[in-house]
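## Example record

The block below lists the input lines for one assembly entry, exactly as stored, with component labels intact.
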Amino acid sequence: MSLPVYATPLQRIWHVAFRVLCGLIFFFLVAPILIIIPLSFNAQDFFTFTPEMLRLDPAGFSLKHYDDFFNNPDWRLPLLNSLAIAPVAMLISVGLGTLAAIGLSQSHVPFKGAIMAILISPMIVPLVISAAGMYFFYSRIGLQGTYWGVVLAHAALGTPFVIITVTATLVGFDQSLTRAAASLGAGPLRTFFKVQMPLILPGVVAGGLFAFITSFDEVVVVIFLGAPGDKTLPWQMFTGLREQISPTILAAATVLVTVSALLLITLEILRRRSERLRGLSPN
Amino acid sequence: MLTADGVPLRRSLNRALRRQKLRAMLLIAPLLVFVLITFLAPIGDMLFRSVENQIVSNTLPRTVASLSDWDLASETPPDETVFRALAHDLVIATELKTHTRLGSRLNYEASGMSSLLRSTGRDVEDFGEDLSASLADLDPVWAEPVTWADLLGDPAWRAEHESWAATGQRSGAPAFQPSATALTALPRTTEIYGAFARITQEVNGRNLMRQDPWHLVAITLIEEIKADPAAAQAFAGEHAARLAAIAGADLAQADFTAAFADSNDRWITPTPWSVIALYAAPYTPGYFLNAVDLGKTPEGIAPRPADEQVYIMLFMRTLWLSLTITALCLLLGYPVAWLLANLPARQANLLMILVLLPFWTSLLVRTSAWKVLLQRQGVINDVLVWIGLIGDDARLVMINNQLGTVIAMTHILLPFMILPLYSVMKTIPPTYMRAAKSLGANDWSAFWRVYFPQSVPGIAAGCILVFILAIGYYITPELMGGARGVFISNRIAYHIGTSLNWGLAAALGTILLIVVLVLYWVYDRFVGVNNVKLG
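Predicted structure tokens for the full assembly:
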């Protein structure tokens, strides 16, 4: 949308000013995230750029915060705990969520609206309320302070994302394909794995990534439900930020930004693949 | 009309439909059950706890029952019966150590109740010590624990207990069984001795024959025999003679009112009694009243003392800051969404990454970034000093106040505004604006009267979404807000983790939940839950 040749000077000024404004907003969006990356290589224990860093003097940079992050048990154990919790929670979310999304996409489902509202509710209810309720209830049934308590809670929080992404891919799904498979003699399981699954796979994987990152980033529920020995990475960061902030947190943050960027790229590839597949399927 | 196999078509179709419904439900059922157990049951538990108040009537059952006759508005404490009932309840509660929990519960409603119950809990065991001693003076057998077990216990149980004792085992003593005679002739003494026996055997795991019964048992026995000397006749042999001796002896009456007054003179004022009576019901609106800065008094519902009024202010602050954040997000998000919707797809996709990267980045990463940037010695203050905008000694304070919370949360929630705005603006044909201009509208009125009204659904969706997310935020206010920038969520977490007032946390949570659900309902009406787009 370039300016027409007949634009008045005022319109030209506004056009430029508007783009500068948008540029500033984009700067506001990404700068805080990007700035912590160079800061994490600081050779000093400061949270700002040292004169050496500004002169690009190699002595101003070091990997010591990364060394601390990967070798100090205070950080390594939480990282391992997070990696032990998130995949299991993700598998539960994806398994149950995909089945339910397929069920919901059928044409005759009684109480569809109510069921959908219930299944989406973990995403809507503020985390502190979910965490409070789970703390009360899980204490009663002995799950509070256990690994499985955290996993089940995270799985519940992750399912709405799976439902939403899988339902979205199923909207474009042509039900006559399953009928065609059935008429050609495939049983329900074979139809599911050979016909339905490849087509909804991008949605399932996207939902899985959302569920994974939900669990991996989640801190409120973990603080309430987790045992002190099962500290996760976000919990450790939260404690670090609240009590005494150590520059290792910048290294941890940079690692997490990298993980997010990788997930974002994966999702983008999946989205394109899904669009391509749906473009091929007869709509 | 029949199908090929001769079944009416209608029935055949109905059956197929039923089968289809059943199949769909079977697919949904596992997740539905999972969410019910792991998520909805906890929410239900929270709702229940916000009104549940069984601790008072469970810990002080006799007191609560006898207090029902007492006039709440009265200027005097209740009569001796109630004091006796409280002594009875407190002796048991102290043994079970539940009186401190009750004290904490009542302390939420009136400060001083916790220390009052603790101090009297220490004294209540010794109430009536002199009476019990005078009984032993009358006949030394009363100082023997076995006498009480023989008098009140079932003979078969006694025999069983003897043979257990003979084995020399330390555990597995047969539980106390009252005799039928004792139950009819001395019901109150038997009841309190039964409580003593249960606690001695089950809770403390001691041998009943070696533990002196509470003084309260002796006091109750004296009272019962004095009131009805004929009860002694119900017993056989030596028991009858001993009880008759008590009936004839000159023993003082127990005075529980004096004993309580001696322990703490607040007991002879009506205040503690009215607190117990007001919060005796097993279900109470008390936590909700507390959550809106009200409390129950004998005169009805009244505002709390001024120094305890924090929750209305916190709710208002939460709403006000959330509105500010929503407005800022709209202000920053609208131009960006417009640009993204109107650029060619290739450029728009590239710029979209700048929106999606923060969206995907961990909340804690973004909060830590702001915490680092906004510090007094942080990058932003350094830059401002360097360009000479502020002096080195006048660095801005941007964290641990409301400003820090607002900046960080605006940044964190901005993608949630841009994405719904963008998806609505994508659907507005650019030709409308051109048509408006060709009909003579200037840039502003073409935007304001043609484009803007069509983008309102996106504004509504984005604003409700950001607002719902903002009012429930906990982490960012906790880390950035200091004392003056915290939200209601932080107070809920405080009551669960630190003050342990779970009922109040549940009531505050319920109020917040209702606000969110109403907004969610509005969102569903106008936008539709199914239209939520991610990424």
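Residues 22 and 531 of chain B are 26 Å apart (CA to CA). Chain B has four domains: 1-48, 55-125+257-284, 128-253, 311-531.
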